[in-house]
């Protein structure tokens, strides 16, 4: 079996593939290394041979996790690394190694699935957009705060914005103007994300007319999905790219 890990800034997304790589044996989202180990140790019938991993965390944090996994499971671990070019995509950053690896892998996955020009949108801790032309040139992208960061900035820097998770969840039943603090903030931030997504779509149209694919991924993709009809929601897009960047030899 193969363990796949996407270590973002807030959460670790993990899944275990059957040895054939054709089926998912188990998957989850955890907020710490300890919770990851706990989740894996609780799986009956787990038998890991390999692990592939992408991280946007600090090198020391990533190394620590790799050490823990090697100690716990004795697996060989392949970590996605920056590249100037891969699978027909050319990294557009002035310093290619500075492009977030989660963005890079989502781009590789998107370009392969699209086999043409694409716009890749990822809504996690940060929200990101990346543009790839039909011949694989990465034009660059945009980064802005995602839902968790926008919400937390308002909570942290105001005295009277306070509400609980239940109120937050209920607030998104509709997007009409809010009549409670929770509604006003949750809907306002959701509309910011949708506006971000729609302006990326307009830019893509100005480049490519109608001839491109839009990919939507990340834990908060559902908040913008119905503002982007025609976009393909691919929750595991980073994992698609991870398998391309870290093939089992
Ligand atoms: N099952 C889930 N577990 C945890 N968070 C989830 C889940 N489903 C949706 N979310 C939401 O997804 C968001 C985090 O998204 P994601 O896990 O893609 O971010 P991340 O990878 O930590 O961030 P980034 O990629 O920007 O570093 C949070 O706002 C969270 O509320
Ligand atoms: C933007 C995030 C935080 C999104 O997860 C990540 O891709 C990252 O840390 N990137 C490095 C900075 C950059 O991509 O320019
Ligand atoms: K991510």
UniProtKB/TrEMBL annotation:
Gene3D superfamilies: 3.30.420.40
Tree of life domain: Bacteria
GO BP annotations listed: coenzyme A biosynthetic process
Residues at the active site: 102 (proton acceptor)
Metabolic or biological pathway: Cofactor biosynthesis; coenzyme A biosynthesis; CoA from (R)-pantothenate: step 1/5
Catalytic reactions of this protein: (R)-pantothenate + ATP = (R)-4'-phosphopantothenate + ADP + H(+)
Keyword set, alphabetical order: ATP-binding, Coenzyme A biosynthesis, Cytoplasm, Kinase, Metal-binding, Nucleotide-binding, Potassium, Transferase
Record carries keyword Membrane: no
Binding site residues for substrate: 93, 100-103, 181
UniProt cofactor(s): NH4(+); K(+)
GO cellular component: cytoplasm
Binding-site residues, K(+): 122
MF terms in GO: ATP binding; metal ion binding; pantothenate kinase activity
Assigned EC number: 2.7.1.33
Chief place of localization: cytoplasm
Record localization: Cytoplasm
Subunit and partners: Homodimer.
Record-stated family: Belongs to the type III pantothenate kinase family.
Name of the protein: Type III pantothenate kinase
Organism whose genome encodes this protein: Pseudomonas brenneri
Lineage of the organism: Bacteria, Pseudomonadati, Pseudomonadota, Gammaproteobacteria, Pseudomonadales
Underlying gene: coaX
